[in-house]
Amino acid sequence: MTQVVLTDRLLRSWLRCKRRAWLDRHGDPEARRWTAHRSLALSDQLASFQSLLAQKPGHGEAACAAAAPGVVGLRLQGEGPAGLQLQAHPSLLERLPGPSRWGDHAYRPVLGRQGRNLTREHRLLLALWGRLLAEYQRAPVPQALVVAGSGRNLQRDTLSLSAGLQHQLDDALVRLAETMESPEPPPLVADRKKCVLCSWRGKCDQEAAAEGHLSEVSGIGGKRREMLLGLGITNLKELAAADPAWLGEALAVHGEQHRHNAAVLVAQARVQAQGRPERLEPEPPAAEGAGGLDPLPELRHCPGVLLYDIESDPDARDDFLHGFVIVPRGADGAWPAGPVPAQGSWRYQPLLALYDHGEALLWQRLRRLLGRYPAWPLLHYGETESIALLRLARRQGAGEAELTALRQRLVDVHARVRRHWRLPVNSYGLKAVASWLGFRWSQSGVDGARCLLWWRQWRRDGGGQRLQRIFTYNRDDNLATWAVVRWLLDGPG
Ligand code: SF4
Question: What is the per-residue pLDDT for 338?
Answer without folding.
Answer: 60
